[in-house]
């Protein structure tokens, strides 16, 4: 009756702008899988005794053996009648997981559901080493220890406010006056953080490349640290990747990389606001726009969507969580339609 | 057109037993959130310089600061017109994540989708410290280092075959002759493993308890190591937990715990096959059945479903992945219907 009541609410004009009343999604399939990885044999480590759960007898835990490592997790939701030509893959950024694309930290529908409602089959993955992909022992398998993101690190890094505006106490934080990040949900956002490594790019890339081989042709929307992986995945499989939409990508293929394989793979790069406040991001942006230029120089398409220049002010690096996240998504959806990616 | 073609295939009698042709699910909402956890302040650790992604300038990584730790992740899929009275929460076991309940390692629909199709709103969570819940620095926050599951460890522990039958080479493995585990997918199953700790039970329990407060009234289906957490969550909130269905739970509340709060919370415990081959599991089973008896002694309901005694032979500890997983789920669904948990 939930749907019927919702329809009745629409008919009666009940509910304000907050009421998320939408017709049911016609979902054909929900599932998940792991791709990639390898088996590593470890020896020479001493056995330990552990109690697997309270009340259970102790068991001998032998840390040696063969281990499955470096695989990657992906979950898909497929529609009964998709209107997009290709599945849409959402790739997250550093220190985060696929949760980036789900419900926003302040509880609004995220881009996963937005693009499902626009008619895309949507795949959400966790990069190798994060979330449901699992992670491997260090230093035996991963070369280094991981890094952990503090609650405050993103305040400046994600251009929500100036470094000087960060304070562990929520009431004393100072953000950019026009920021679109839902500030009251900052600590909820911090719960999405997971440890990351800085020495595992080759394994992350390998898993993404296998993922593309498994599920594409596809369109990739990628965020931040993921940008470099998606650009390289498109280079490795330009026949499989039909478009790359990079949300504030933080890296690119190495300078001098031949962009000609991407001639037929349209790219879109999306930038938020407050670059003037961040020399760090200005440098990244220059690198990325150089790469976009290299694609265009080869006769390809690499469009730049500069949100403030297009009239949207105050978007942070986490624009899929910003209060106008659906509006940003709508502009991306329109670009996809213009590029012929919808049926 | 995917659905129309599927309907046509049914009409024409195309497709064998393998064709998973079902009408679309009417999904009202898909989302996720984190619950619980706390903020920990760390100091005194030296700064390091890291390169966040190739081509990006180096940044100073300060390992000190305030960290959000010990939260838990859950994802929900809600139907337009649920036929169950309460949402169904699926809690996984040790060394695994919510992926346990999704597509089986050999690619069949798992229990998440099974119970959705039976009319339940379904929540799938990752225990604190695993998967999308993230994990915290050790030994500063978690007391110990984690343990990693080798590919072979589960062969005997999950009663798929005898310890002596394990071999890293798939062709040389020897399983129980009647096992229902999809043996060719053993290595795919190993990809679902994630590190776990043996010193974090209190934090895991705290997060589960907060989760129950947030989303219940509910019914919980719980597996293995999760059993103890669900039994204790029901004790802590007998007004919120409307039933506990424990799939081979490996632990119970401590001996002597008062079971009287559970008088109104029906429990079902489900056991697979090959207990005669495992003194370890016999001991666990005795503990668990003593707890079930304590619930009955207080006038409550604690049913035991012994699959081999009921005519289902060869089920492993991972029965939600076994080749007859839907048949096992069907018996659980029937129990829920008998207990008045469907509308």
From TrEMBL, chains A, B:
<dbReference type="InterPro" id="IPR029058">
    <property type="entry name" value="AB_hydrolase_fold"/>
</dbReference>
<feature type="signal peptide">
    <location>
        <begin position="1"/>
        <end position="19"/>
    </location>
</feature>
<protein>
    <submittedName>
        <fullName>Esterase</fullName>
    </submittedName>
</protein>
<keyword id="KW-0732">Signal</keyword>
<dbReference type="InterPro" id="IPR050228">
    <property type="entry name" value="Carboxylesterase_BioH"/>
</dbReference>
